[in-house]
Amino acid sequence: MFTFTNASFRPTEDVTNIGRRENLDEMDWEEGLSGGQLGVVVPGETITSSMDFMRGHGTFADGEDVAATVAGTLQRVNKLLSVKPIRSRYTPQIGDLVVARIVDVQPKRWKVDANGQQDAVLMLSSVNLPGGIQRRKLESDELQMRLFFEEGDLLVAEVQAFFADGAMSLHTRSLRYGKLRNGQLVTVPPILIRRLKSHFCALKCGVDAILGINGYIWVCKHVQESHQAGEEGFNAESVYSNKNDHIDTSTHLAIVRVSNILKIMSQYYIPITDSALNYAYSWVMENGLEAKNILRRNIAETLVEAITGDTIRNYK
So what's the pLDDT on residue 140? Predict the structure, then answer.
């Protein structure tokens, strides 16, 4: 059996609802399981010695004990114990909203990096044509595929289905989906993204945040609801434009502040929601902090303490 020392990670109470169980005896731990109070485990750590539980993903049998194979959060479904890794690739589900990047243009499809185990696929038949025209895709559309999306373009899409090999099939058949402009991409561990009623978040600071379930977050200039819905005054041709709109200085600074806040929340492993972002931004503005200073360690730890209510310990 391997012996692990100096395990380095950053759990917080918002993620686990409890701290490490180093001082709990076995009886307390098994009672904790019965009560559904699950926490963070590290590789090789004994989870329970009870024979009443079944082993799931991220666990192995260590004699009569059940131990963890990865560092992550312990989850229980009835008598099944599993460990969800702290850092892992995105595991997709149908209906998930994802932010992704085009990596290749192929006949009648685009290959897309959606932070999964393999590249996703966006079929030509699964996108809107310029102007929102609904018709069958023609050979001329296939010849113009790079006018819609080309390598390096970012887009927001929805997981529609899965192919036989497990690859995601995406679609952008909505005016809320499509090419992304006027913003900045921030990458966080997918486990930190909480499932919300809507992942298109209009923050109080005047910018939008698209929280992709896959851990890719797009922070951008605010888009009016009427523009997303295609109402009067909406130029549908701009859906596939590569040119950014004019962004004023205040909006640019707000985008940078939100992006830096997201980086801190990712570094200290804090669950990401629109309410948490609004609170953190308000705290930053109340303390008169410049965007470039938010990432300083002492300020970052004070911000995290304000968000979680916990004192941040130093990890070496």
Answer: 84
